[in-house]
Amino acid sequence: MIDNYSNREQLLELLELTKKDDTTLKNEAKQMAKIYLAEDIEQMYANSNEENDQLNEVILNNRNKKWIPVMEKAMKEKPTFFGVGATHLAGEEGAIKFLRKQGFKVEPVK
Fold it and tell me: In this predicted model, what pLDDT tens digit does every residue of 25-62 receive, in sequence order?
């Protein structure tokens, strides 16, 4: 994934992180934990997209597109549980919408 970014782009991303103080980072982590505990995957996805759309395209959307055929094959053989990061589930190109478009029944496990 990182190879998709030039050295300059990687450096700029790292520099942005260094501009944040401990309080800002702690507040962001607390907010993300609050959203996670509320099971608001759409908000998690929205927050991750605010950071870097291009990076999310590579990390989330492109990976989802590659996983769906693998998931479909496995599910056709037998009922299957998949564990993925929460932000992979949400959004227009999230795993849930992809699978539902393919006619699969997708339910949360609690």
Answer: 888 889 889 998 998 988 988 887 666 666 677 778 88
The predicted model scores a pTM of: 0.67
- 104: tokens are 């699969």
In this structure, what is the dihedral angle of CA atoms 98, 46, 66, 10, given to the nearest 10 degrees? 170
Cα-Cα-Cα-Cα dihedral sign, residues 110, 38, 63, 99: positive
